[in-house]
Specification:
The complex is a heterodimer of chains A (380) and B (67). Chain A is α/β, with parallel strands linked by helices and 380 residues long. In chain A, strands 3-2-1-7-19-18-17-20-21 form a 9-stranded mixed beta sheet, with no helix packed on it. The longest helix of chain B is centred in the C-terminal third of the chain and has 10 residues. Chain B is globular, with a radius of gyration of 10 Å. Classes of the chains: A alpha/beta (380), B alpha+beta (67).
Chain lengths: 380, 67
């Protein structure tokens, strides 16, 4: 009998998914498959507290009341005809039957084509421990990519005493997440803790130069450092599904109910949620999300759909990051074309609260050390 | 039942705990969460476990049980 649900991946969305299923009274047998030795754990602290302290309590998630069986194995494929997940662990290969399959393998670090394969990245708890072990105070570090991970890493390492250079081809930090807003401000915060920022930087080559790494920028500039970290973004972890027939143009597409769409049809029993998922919008374009809040939203929506329970209202999009000791929070969806208005600020607290958009009803909001105002928005 | 506590050094004001258990947590004027007075030892365990899992800062602790 295969009267059980198998979830591949044990991170942010899986926790929210199982929690909501159990809350709605679902008592199915649930098996979670994850090869990460630290699973289950939460992601936001990995590039923040955990990177500094490596204290397991900072990432640990307690599933003890959720009645979940965890199998530590690598999923290598899906046999959709036989409703079986293909697994690989120390004991070799095996198959795990399922009634319903939920794919939640998240994303993996993207790599630049010119990047040496041993370049450090930051995604998993193990990556964070490796990075921590490699970075002593006094070392110089070059970080490629000024998205949330690159900026958080630069902030953490600079505050630990490393000499940090942050490089991005964009014209400022967090360009995608903040839709180009506050680039000068964020640059000055990073520079205030000693981070050297190189924007509009094309990388021509990455080479070993003695015991250092050397980055050759397109303007002829060279950057030497002890360590090199790549943080150029993330890609859905779908390589293991290549032979499953579940991918469309290399992406794992789902419909509004989290059902995997393959060959134009929505699956009856295979679902996906979180960072691994791609959605096709009405205009034919593809869209992915990479946030903790969005992953949890996918998960609770899917749990509610599977239980035949009405969905709770969708929460406002929410994202946060830490930049040089400042809490930066975004509520709503930012648009580069929308005007940015400073609503209030307090230099003593280094706080500022911005509206992005012409009118309050359709605005998005950016808070810098503005937790009270953001909390009120989230609570409303 | 251990004592419920929000670590003020960790809480960043995401307000998730308040959304899950508004009768246990409150958000103060600074935007940070606290356990409501009198609730430290009297709370609904299921909701609090959920709040703990939902805190992206791992700021909510039950003292004397696992912490």
């Amino acid at each position: 009998m295969t009267n059980h649900m198998v979830v591949v991946g044990g991170s942010v969305s899986t926790t929210a998914f199982v929690e909501r299923l159990r809350e709605l009274g679902n008592r199915d047998r649930i098996i979670v498959v994850d090869s990460d030795p630290d699973a289950p754990y939460d992601r936001p602290p990995v590039s923040k507290h955990y990177l500094v302290g490596a204290d397991h309590d900072d990432i640990a998630v307690d599933w003890s009341d959720l009645d979940v069986e965890l199998i530590r194995a690598r999923a290598t494929g899906v046999d959709t005809d036989a409703n079986a997940l293909l697994l690989e662990d120390n004991g070799g290969e095996r198959r795990l039957g399922f009634e319903k399959l939920v794919i939640a393998t998240g994303a993996l670090p993207a790599r630049l084509p010119i990047e040496p394969p041993d370049t450090l990245v930051l995604r998993s708890a193990e990556d964070a421990r490796r990075l921590r072990a490699h970075t002593d105070a006094g070392q110089s570090v070059t970080i490629i990519g000024a998205g949330a991970i690159g900026v958080e890493l630069a902030s953490s390492l600079a505050e630990r005493g490393s000499s940090v250079t942050l490089v991005d081809r964009a014209s400022g930090p967090l360009e995608r997440l903040l839709a180009g807003h506050l680039a000068d401000e964020a640059t000055s915060w990073l520079e205030s803790i000693g981070v050297s920022c190189r924007w509009n930087a094309g990388i021509e080559a990455i080479e070993r130069d003695g015991d250092k790494w050397r980055l050759d920028l397109s303007g002829g500039q060279k950057i030497l450092s002890d360590l090199l970290v790549s943080a150029v973004g993330a890609r859905p972890a779908v390589a293991w599904l290549v032979d499953s027939g579940l991918l469309t143009e290399g992406a794992l597409l789902v419909d509004d109910h989290g059902r995997v769409i393959s060959r134009g049809h929505a699956s009856e029993n295979i679902f996906a949620m979180g960072d691994v998922v791609t959605r096709r919008l009405e205009d034919g374009s593809f869209r992915r999300t990479e946030s903790w809040a969005a992953a949890r939203q996918h998960a609770t929506d899917l749990a509610e759909d599977l239980c035949g329970h009405g969905r709770r209202p969708t929460q406002k999009p929410y994202f946060w990051t830490e930049v040089a000791g400042r809490m930066v929070q975004v509520v709503g969806t930012l648009d580069a074309a929308d005007p940015l208005t400073l609503e209030s600020s307090n230099p003593d607290r280094r706080s500022a609260f911005y509206r992005v958009g012409a009118d309050d009803a359709n605005a998005a909001w950016i808070g810098v050390n503005s937790q009270p105002k953001i909390a009120r928005l989230l609570m409303s | 039942m251990g004592e419920l506590w929000v670590d003020p050094a960790r809480c960043q004001g995401h307000a998730r705990c308040w959304m899950i258990a508004p009768d246990t947590f409150e958000i103060d004027d600074e935007g940070y969460s606290h356990v409501l007075a009198g609730r430290e030892g009297a709370y609904e365990e299921e909701a609090v476990k959920k709040a703990i899992r939902n805190c992206p800062e791992r700021a909510i602790k039950i003292l004397g049980v696992d912490g």
